[in-house]
């Protein structure tokens, strides 16, 4: 399996990610992350693994015109979409392409580091956390989130992909859950060993609502690193994949889609 950090999207997958993954899976969690950070006007914020910039854009509004926001991501396709979107009111946003484990940023230049659902993708998590600590000013703070349980949807899609595509593709699509089984103790250990203090972990649950699988699953997978493998399937196999997901989610059906609980840990710490 490729290193978890290689969540690289090709073609128009980054645009589809912004259209399908952000509104349903990531966007609803952004206010909670930013609320935990308690951003103040004039602060300098770094958004690590920023993707198409949903966290960075809200942070820019919170810190205002006297603040500054930097969005950092390894994936050029994600950053291209981030740059193409209308800039928010508030702080200017600088988009930087580089690895979280070796940031091209000066020491002690940020008041706050944010990272939503990025830590699990980093092949060297301790190195990435040390980098976050390095770029923070003394007394700075970091707020990050990771999924704490595999959602019913994620389980259904992983199983269906494993059945209809391959075990390797299933492992790749399940990469966001890499820390879900580690638990709070492992998160706390990683933070402390990276040099952070005052580590607190807040468990949160949110109801996620999606369109019916027939209208959503294949578009969602087209916005993922296994887009090419899914596109190469026969029509029969794609139909079977959607059918498998639909069957697994029958108990979560609503009139206009499916609804299921999603669980995440929000981690807050200081330098």
Polypeptide structure, described:
The protein has 271 residues and is α/β, with parallel strands linked by helices. Helices cover 41% and strands 24% of the residues. Strands 1, 2, 3, 4, 5, 6, 7 and 8 form an eight-stranded mixed β-sheet that branches.
Can you give keywords for this protein?
271 residues, alpha/beta, Rossmann fold, eight-stranded mixed β-sheet, 11 helices, 8 strands, 24% strand
Query: What is the CATH architecture annotation of the domain at 13-149 and 177-208 and 261-270?
Result: 3-Layer(aba) Sandwich
Unreliable segments (pLDDT under 50, ≥5 consecutive)? 1-7
Main sheet properties: 8 strands, mixed
CATH fold-level assignment of the domain at 13-149 and 177-208 and 261-270:
Rossmann fold
- Please, what is the average pLDDT? 93
How helical, in percent, are the residues? 40-55%
CATH class of the domain at 13-149 and 177-208 and 261-270: Alpha Beta
The radius of gyration over CA amounts to 18 Å
List the helices and strands and how they pair.
Blueprint: H1 13-26, H2 30-37, E1 44-48, H3 54-63, E2 68-73, H4 76-84, E3 93-97, E4 110-116, H5 125-135, E5 136-147, H6 152-164, H7 167-173, H8 183-193, E6 197-210, H9 213-222, H10 227-231, H11 235-248, E7 253-254, E8 257-270
Parallel strand pairs: 1-2, 1-4, 2-3, 4-5
Antiparallel strand pairs: 5-8, 6-8, 7-8
Quick summary:
The chain has a domain at 13-149 and 177-208 and 261-270: Vaccinia Virus protein VP39 (Rossmann fold). The protein has 11 helices and 8 strands.
């Amino acid at each position: 399996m490729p290193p978890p950090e290689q969540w690289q999207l090709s073609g128009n997958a980054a645009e589809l990610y912004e259209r399908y993954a952000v509104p349903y899976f990531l966007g609803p969690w952004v206010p909670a992350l930013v609320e935990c950070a308690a951003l103040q006007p004039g602060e300098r914020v770094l958004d690590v693994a920023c993707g198409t910039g949903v966290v960075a854009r809200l942070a820019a509004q919170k810190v205002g015109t006297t603040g500054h926001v930097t969005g950092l991501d390894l994936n050029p396709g994600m950053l291209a979409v981030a740059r193409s979107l209308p800039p928010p009111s508030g702080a200017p946003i600088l988009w930087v392409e580089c690895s979280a484990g070796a940031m091209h940023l000066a020491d002690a230049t940020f008041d706050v580091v944010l990272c939503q659902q990025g830590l699990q993708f980093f092949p060297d998590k301790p190195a990435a956390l040390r980098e976050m600590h390095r770029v923070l000013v003394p007394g700075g703070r970091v707020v990050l989130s990771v999924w704490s349980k595999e959602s019913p949807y994620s389980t259904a899609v992983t199983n269906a992909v494993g059945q209809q595509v391959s075990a390797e593709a299933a492992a790749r699509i399940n990469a966001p859950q890499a820390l879900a089984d580690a638990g709070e103790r492992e998160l706390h250990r990683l933070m402390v060993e990276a040099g952070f203090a005052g580590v607190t972990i807040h468990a949160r649950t949110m109801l996620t609502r999606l369109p019916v699988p027939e209208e959503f699953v294949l578009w969602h997978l087209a916005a993922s690193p296994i887009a090419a493998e899914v596109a190469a399937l026969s029509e029969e196999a794609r139909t079977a994949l959607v059918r498998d997901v639909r069957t697994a989610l029958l108990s979560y059906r609503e009139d206009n889609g499916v609804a299921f609980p999603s669980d995440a840990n929000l981690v807050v710490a200081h330098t």
